[in-house]
Amino acid sequence: MKKNRLVIALVALMLFVLSACGNTAKNDAAAKDKKEKSKAAPTEMILATTTSTQDSGLLDVLIPMFEEENNVKVKTIAVGTGQALEMGTKGEADALLVHAPAAEKKVVDAGDAINYKRVMYNDFVLVGPTENPAGVSGDDIKGAMKKIADSKSVFVSRGDDSGTHKKELSIWDAAGVKPAGDWYVSTGQGMGQTLQVAAEKKGYCLTDRATWLSQSKNLDTLKILVEGADDLLNIYHVMQVNPKKHDKVNSKDAEKFVNFMVDKKTQKVIADFGKKEYGQALFFNYTD
Predict the structure, then answer these.
(1) Which of 158, 224, 260, 285 can pair with 267 through a Cys bridge, CB separation 3.0 to 4.6 Å?
(2) Taking each helix axis from N to C terminus, what angle separates 251-262 and 58-70, rounded to the nearest 10 degrees?
(3) Domain 123-232 belongs in CATH node 3.40.190.10
(4) What is the pTM of this model?
């Protein structure tokens, strides 16, 4: 009899424990569901940026950080800097991340962009075929470009009004050369695609260092030939489109993005980006 009572007591205890566990699980699930429902839907922001920030992989790290911290969904449009700036002047983007200071200044001076801040920098490099038919080397970029033109060696240009394209054109102008002819190939494409064309054609190409480092493993016919000149500095700025001039923009999140890009934590991520994989940073933060 006592044995039966003990068995009944144990069964009752097990049922109680199982019931308690079930209720706890249900309560936890209900609380989680309530929390998820109470969380506001993310707002949406459009970022117009240069292809180099996309091709280098930097945005794949930074954008998820910003989205998580601010409950914002970012639509990234990676185009040439010229196109990105044009989107800003038309109010078709909320924030801009670009690298053509002279062109940027015009947009800021016109009142189309505000909260203009320097974010990071790296440099441009001239890459070319390992055979190096034009015989260029060193840090004299103007002399190198003139040698390429004089020898009519293949040069592959982005030709897309990007920051890199603008820099290339300024170097040709400084070298006293107006590039034209079969040797001068314009792709109208981003940096990654243009480097692929240069590799296929065994041509020379001006590129930002970050995109080169991130893509060079697939470009074994090319190598860096000219680098280190002061006039090859590549500076990136971030800004928000002016809501007083373009009232449809998401100025609240654009301002958050500008502040995020110059925040110390973000700057540390930028300074460390690429070191582990490439043995060197792809970008330097604005305080360096």
Answers:
(1) 285
(2) 120
(3) yes
(4) 0.80
